Here is the input.
Amino acid sequence: MAEMTTTQAVRASHFPEHGPINEEGREILLSIKNIDITFGKGDNAVKAVTDASFDIYKGETFSLVGESGSGKTTIGRAVIRVNPLSAGEIQYKGVRISGKIPHSLDREVIRNVQMVFQDPAASLNERATVDYIVSEGLYNFHLFESEADRVQKVENMISEVGLLPEHLTRYPHEFSGGQRQRIGIARAMVMEPELVVADEPISALDVSIRAQVLNLMKKFQREKNLTYLFIAHDLSVVRFISDRIGVIYKGRIVEVAEAEELFNFPLHPYTHSLISAIPIPDPQLEKNKVLYTYDPSMHDYSEDKPEFVNIGHDHWVYGNKKEIENYKALREKNVPIQAVTIADGPIEPEDTKTLDEELTADDAAFLKVPVHDTGSIWYAVLSFFLPLLGLIGGLIFRHYNHFRNYKACMKGTVIGFITIGVILAIFLLLLLFVVI
Here is the structure.
């Protein structure tokens, strides 16, 4: 079976109607097989993704989560053939789409796999109208019978994403962030793709707009039987939209499971730390929440090498034999793992100092300074021209702890008296010369 799939992946120039079926009877639309992605060469080479493997089933939403720089977008861009692989392969419906493939197959990839980008502003051509942006794929693949048919398709799609037909003559800079993302979704959906790579499509949007965009994407999935590779770092959103979730850490997939399975049984410590970091709406509970911090040094892989293993319940975890045994034991207990811990009282950090201990003498004096003690330059100017009045004002300011105002007055007063003294001295010298 594996040899047949490999031969098909090498020689096929078109996609079959359906992808391979797994043991559970589900169609595998996209298969990531032990891929490595490296940027640069020689000593400057940086491995962004290491031995990543997972399958995406037709009609589901598979989410890839992890912190910034973990390799999520790198994998997404590899799926649409932007980032080349240094090892492994990517298969779509059992046909290899990574590396060098026939031109006809490349066009089918572009046609069937679309991407919704993270930045709705940078991903749209500012010099093109919305009509051209949405129609560009239709033009490239000639997916319309006549001009009237093209216009009809574009108007229908722009209406489906919640915009109006009159918006088609406008330019991207005339729209808000949420509206621009809707245009990006319309551009992808008008191609009638089977797989959509959504690269953090809501992270640049206001919170009030995020739900609208997510609901729009779910609506398209129901109506068009779409499959999503949803890339995100917000696990609360991921739980809402996902069927299965893959967790990636520094370019390596560490855990894959169904959404509720992953949240109920976060076995890998990194997954545990991500879930513990989800904000709690209650401010008091959030204040008392104990954050779980992942430390990679907790793993000892010097002798017992780790593997990516299915521990049952379609739950895959990365670890060595000892860790896998522990994960299996935890899972077999079938008791949900509490990822979030709430302390009984306020959490005081270790080595905490009181405010008085942390403040220097100057800081303490500064905090006691009245609000209106600004040290305005006008106090200095006034004291310069009227030094006697400035001296009296400075003494008053000092009595009420207005130290900045006091210094400004004293500065102006001193310079004023010196100036007056110099003028008097010059006047006396001139008078002396006249008398002599």
